[in-house]
UniProtKB/TrEMBL annotation:
Protein name: tRNA (uracil-O(2)-)-methyltransferase
Protein family according to the UniProt entry: Belongs to the TRM44 family.
Boundaries of every C3H1-type domain copy: 263-293
Keywords: Cytoplasm, Metal-binding, Methyltransferase, S-adenosyl-L-methionine, Transferase, tRNA processing, Zinc, Zinc-finger
Recorded name of the encoding gene: Trmt44
EC number(s) per entry: 2.1.1.211
Location of the protein in the cell: Cytoplasm
């Protein structure tokens, strides 16, 4: 409905209709084939010559549908728009207000005869809204989506939160004696305690929490993004011990091994800089740089 000049490409994956999960109606077809036919039908109702192709991608769902050409001239746009409106109105799940004031859902029957009735007249209320309202309650995304995965937060703010949480975990247990600053002694390296996300949040100030709540996932997302320092398992936060990280068992091709070597030590080791016992790994084993002289 965007424009007569609009073309489209779609790679159907999850089985959804306009307002919820797609309901199967033909048991003789596979669910995937039936859904592909439904998406193709949507394109046909919208006045496209729908073409089907198979992509060369490593996926079981690799059939795509393409609409490049219209089945009608530009002069019939208004008629096709009515046809599209009727089709949408007969497939959607309309939100209705129940007697107790709550919002419920009233399921309409699926409409398969839309093409036969393309020229029929719409009810007066549908005719009035055909050009303005596509679906009741439908809220399109903004043209520019806001990044809310903590990736756009200022680096100084993220570093402060990481340091505060790490110190909280380290101070949860008494420091062990005999550790040296950057020696990474295996027997004395302090991994700290694990705390729940709730317990960690209780120790952060209100301004920090308010800023994190505006991000998707909040504190948990920020800690997971900083996987060099933290490990979040079952809602509990741990300081990552790189001695326990298992090397990949898969044998990498020569090209990938070369690329991995080139990417080695491109960031400073957080533990070497901030941990009271230094890094738990010796310099030659740590994937991060122990000092700026090791950076690549």
């Amino acid at each position: 409905r965007s424009s007569y000049l609009c073309c489209y490409f779609v790679l159907p994956c999850c089985f959804f209709d306009f307002h919820g999960k797609y309901s199967r109606r033909q048991s003789k077809k596979t669910q995937y084939r039936e859904y592909l036919d439904f998406v193709a039908q949507v394109g046909f109702v919208c006045g496209f010559h729908v073409e089907e192709d198979c992509l060369r991608i490593p996926s079981t769902k690799r059939v795509c549908l393409i609409g490049k050409n219209r089945t009608y001239p530009p002069t019939e746009c208004a008629l096709i728009d009515k046809q599209i409106t009727r089709y949408i109105n007969n497939r959607q799940t309309c939100a209705v207000v129940t007697c107790d004031g709550r919002v419920g859902f009233n399921h309409k029957d699926h409409y398969d005869g839309v093409c036969k009735e393309a020229g029929s007249e719409l009810p007066e209320n549908e005719t009035d809204t055909a050009g303005t309202i596509w679906m009741p309650g439908f809220q399109p995304r903004e043209k520019v989506e806001q990044i809310r995965n903590c990736a756009s937060l200022p680096r100084d703010f993220v570093d402060d939160v990481v340091l505060n949480v790490a110190n909280l975990l380290l101070n949860a247990t008494p420091q062990k004696s005999g550790s040296n600053m950057h020696g990474g002694n295996v027997n004395t390296w302090n991994q700290g305690e694990s705390l729940s996300l709730k317990e960690v949040a209780e120790h952060l100030n209100k301004e920090t929490l308010k800023r994190l709540k505006s991000e998707c996932g909040g504190l948990q997302t920020l800690l997971k993004n900083n996987h060099q320092v933290f490990e979040v398992l079952n809602g509990r936060v741990h300081i990552r011990d790189w001695r326990k990280e298992k090397p990949s068992r898969k044998t990498k091709p020569e090209v990938k091994r070369r690329l991995s070597a080139e990417a080695f030590k491109t960031r400073l080791c957080w533990f070497f800089i901030h941990h009271p016992d230094g890094c738990s790994l010796p310099s030659e084993s740590c994937p991060y740089a122990h000092g700026t002289e090791e950076l690549r």
